[in-house]
Design goal:
The N and C termini lie far apart (about 70 Å). The protein has 4 domains: about 20-85, Membrane-bound Lytic Murein Transglycosylase D, Chain A (Roll), CATH 3.10.350.10; about 90-135, Membrane-bound Lytic Murein Transglycosylase D, Chain A, CATH 3.10.350; about 145-230, Immunoglobulin-like (Sandwich); about 235-400, Distorted Sandwich (Glucose Permease (Domain IIA)), CATH 2.70.70. The protein has 6 helices and 25 strands. The chain has helices at about 1-20, 45-50, 55-65, 100-110, 115-120, 250-265, and strands at about 35-40, 75-80, 95, 135, 145-150, 155, 160-165, 170-175, 180-185, 190-195, 205-215, 220-230, 235, 285, 290-295, 305-310, 315-320, 325-330, 335-345, 345-355, 355, 365, 370, 385-390, 395. Helix 4 packs across helix 5 (about 115-120). The protein has about 400 residues and is α+β, with helices and mostly antiparallel strands. Strand 9 (about 180-185) and strand 10 form a beta hairpin.
Length: about 400
């Protein structure tokens, strides 16, 4: 009987091995044609993608898997073969560590969050866990080793982050089109923020970065990146009687200089964290950068300095991110205005308020009441004007509600 059991066991084991062994076509498929693969115990779509030098998304598309990551032992999958395109070439798999975020991984390996998300077919880039395997893309978009420019092509009114990761790096300075960029030390890297003017010239912009290592040696590297046009709308505005005097160029110049003196300062510590909230939630009556004509006059070249929310007077206005109040007073053109310093050259401002509920020097957190909606200054009716500055340059504030910077 023992001999019978032993024979039966060997036969069963042989069948099991045959079941889970990869099955190949009798003849090698043509170069680049899909190959049939039989899913084995312990397989994942990621592991199969790495084995065949392809991507999870490519396998899903080829097999009509949709958004599902579920595969079963014995399931037949078509996998691409032959030379993979450069964009799909994989480096060694990366295993997510405690404290990792997709952004930190992307920064470390010179990729972008979107590239990692697409390559690994991640529905939510915020949901990664320690021990998870991620594919790292071969990044042909890196301008220089250890550099990351996000986004790689800027737009008028946008925010660009420049990140430098090099060993034994002690300090980084730089210029964008000749204007200085301040760099801040992050977790193993340095980053600088560039605000692209809403009326910037399109085309290539020059970027120079000077690196200083721990031995005091300096090197300067130069590159360019593109600035794309933003399709700003044109808006015709008729001012109420008595408000036209606020268009006086001398008055506006004086107030612009007063505001510039506030927002061109640099606090070396970053005070905020993550994506910002909005100061309030209401319909937008005038987007950032809107080209305006007042009382039938010529259309302005640079356009609207911020985002206008159409909302009733007296509605509360809240801080969108942590920061320190550096201005809170009545001005002629912008009315009751509050300005908050968020650190590393980032400031936000709130115009036309009916009342101001904070004081200069006060620290505010996301959701802190800073004032109420009004129509003071150059305004046609109750609304909130929200501006954002990067090193003194107006940028689109709503972009900061959609991105975590840095």
């Amino acid at each position: 009987m023992k001999l019978v059991y032993r024979v039966l066991f060997l036969l069963a084991l042989g069948a099991l091995v045959w079941t889970f062994a990869p099955m190949r076509a009798a003849a090698a498929p043509p170069q680049g044609a899909p190959e049939t693969y039989i899913v084995q115990s312990g397989d994942t779509l990621f592991a199969i993608a790495v084995r065949y030098h392809t991507t999870v998304a490519a396998i899903k598309q080829l097999n009509g898997l949709g958004n599902s990551d579920l595969i079963q032992v014995g399931q037949k999958l078509l996998v691409p073969t032959g030379d993979a395109p450069a964009s799909a070439t994989l480096a060694a798999p990366y295993i997510v560590q405690e404290g990792d975020t997709l952004y930190r991984i992307a920064s470390r390996y010179g990729a972008t969050v979107r590239a990692l998300q697409d390559l690994n077919d991640l529905a939510n880039p915020n949901l990664i866990v320690p021990g998870q395997a991620l594919a790292l893309p071969h990044n042909g978009d890196i301008v220089k080793p250890g550099w990351l420019i996000d986004p790689p092509a800027a737009r008028q009114g946008g925010t660009v982050m420049i990140q430098v990761t090099r060993p034994e790096l002690a300090a980084v300075t730089g210029t964008f089109n000749g204007k200085p960029i301040q760099f801040t030390r992050g977790a193993g890297y340095f980053y600088g923020l560039v605000g692209i003017s809403r009326c910037a010239k399109t085309g290539n912009a020059s970027l120079a970065v000077t690196l200083t290592d721990t031995a005091g040696e300096t090197t300067t590297e130069n590159t360019t990146f593109g600035i794309e046009a933003t399709a700003f709308v044109v808006q015709k505005i008729t001012l109420p009687p008595g408000k036209g005097a606020l268009l006086d160029s001398a008055l506006q110049k004086r107030e612009n200089e007063q505001l510039a003196a506030v927002v061109n300062k640099y606090t070396p510590s970053r005070l905020w964290s993550g994506a910002w909230r909005q100061p309030l939630y209401a319909p937008i009556s005038s987007p950032f950068g809107t080209r305006r004509s007042y009382n039938g006059g010529p259309v302005g070249v640079c356009g609207h300095e911020g985002t206008d929310f159409d909302v009733d007077a007296g509605v509360p206005v809240y801080a969108p991110a942590r920061g320190k109040v550096v201005f809170a007073a009545l001005t002629q053109v912008r009315g009751n205005m509050t300005v908050i310093d968020h650190g590393v050259g980032v400031f936000s401002a709130y115009f036309h308020q009916s009342e101001i509920d904070v004081q200069v020097g006060q620290m505010v957190e996301p959701g802190t009441l800073i004032g109420k909606v009004g129509t003071t200054g150059l305004s046609t009716g109750p609304h909130l004007h929200w501006s954002l500055f990067i090193n003194g340059e107006y940028v689109d504030p709503l972009e900061w509600t959609r991105r975590a910077i840095p």
